[in-house]
Amino acid sequence: MRFRFDKLGIVIAVLAIYGLLASPFAVLKPNRILQGQAKTVLEALPPLAGGVLVAGLALAIVIALVRAPATLRLIAAVSALTGLVLAMGQAAGFLTPDGNTYARVSPASGFWILLFAFALLTADAITRLQPPPWLRVLLLGAAAVAIGLLFVSGSWNGLSIMKEYAGRADVFWSEAGNHVKLALGSLVAASIVGLPLGVLCHRVRWLRASVLNLLNLIQTIPSIALFGILIAPLAWIAANVPGASEAGIRGIGTAPAFVALFLYSLLPIVANTVVGLSGVPRETNEAARGIGMTNRQRLFQVEIPLALPVILTAIRIVLVQNIGMATIAALIGGGGFGVFVFQGIGQTAMDLVLLGAVPTVALAFAAAVVLDALIEMNSRVAKGGRAA
Are strands 104-107 and 37-39 parallel, antiparallel or unpaired? Predict the structure, then answer.
């Protein structure tokens, strides 16, 4: 029997082999700050568990390497990810000395490389299976439930990142709420302003260039600089405008972070609204005009529905962008997951950095999957409308 190699599978296999054989799996540290001792997979786990994990990962690597059916690739990838996650929890209990409350066990580079490699294999298998949008969202929900069960089970409680979380659980969820409010709130505000502005730029051509150039200029300002620029005017408004301070407008804190994210969000929404409306076929508009539709009716019943996939693409870009950029808001007292990132950097505690970085990445990934599914569903509806 002749095996054919898979091109992406070769990349995945190389990454996985490097993570398994050439990189440490876990790190045992005397405390949360000091450098620790790197451990390979077989050193970090009991002999039987280590051997089973290596054998399972080797089988998954072989399946990734050859052109196996997509379903088999998905099963291998999910099994490998499950084994990695459970093994890391077991490594924490195996490596931590009995009675030592200061020692910390953290995932090392090999674990993260292996996690990335098999996550890539999972994404590739799902793409090849071409599931409908609702099924992709369902798979995301199943992954979220599995992660929730992992935390509830306590199998990761011995890891350093979970010890960092245990001491900050209340603050963590408070800052998570702040992060979501900043990302979603600025998106909603930008949509309320940007959609009508995009329609106006589409209708009034001489205005289009000026607005888009101004918004492009704002995009070129680095985020830290924009946060700093907004401190002075917002502080002046808080001091001189009655009721502004009571409404939460201040020179530092949530207000400048919210305004900055709002300003960064405008360009994609305005530009994509213009592009989406410009892409509506002229024949469709003429047909709508021919049956007596007013300009307002054509806009809301014909043009916007057909342009919606392009507009939703902008919203997806903005939301993922805002989730990432909201991390920087912590530098000016805006809160969010960035609080843990910058505290960890200041204390040279990398597990505290991960406590802020990992949920940020997970939140951005989940938002991208959900909005991609929504865009695809609306694209199908729009194509159906054109065909009709």
Answer: unpaired
What are the tens digits of pLDDT across the range 320-356? Answer: 999 999 998 888 888 899 999 999 988 888 899 999 9
Where exactly are the structural domains of the chain? 7-160, 169-387
169-387: CATH homologous superfamily?
Answer: MetI-like (1.10.3720.10)
Strand partners, 106: 27
Q: Does 2 have pLDDT greater than 70?
A: no
Mean pLDDT of all residues belonging to the chain = 88
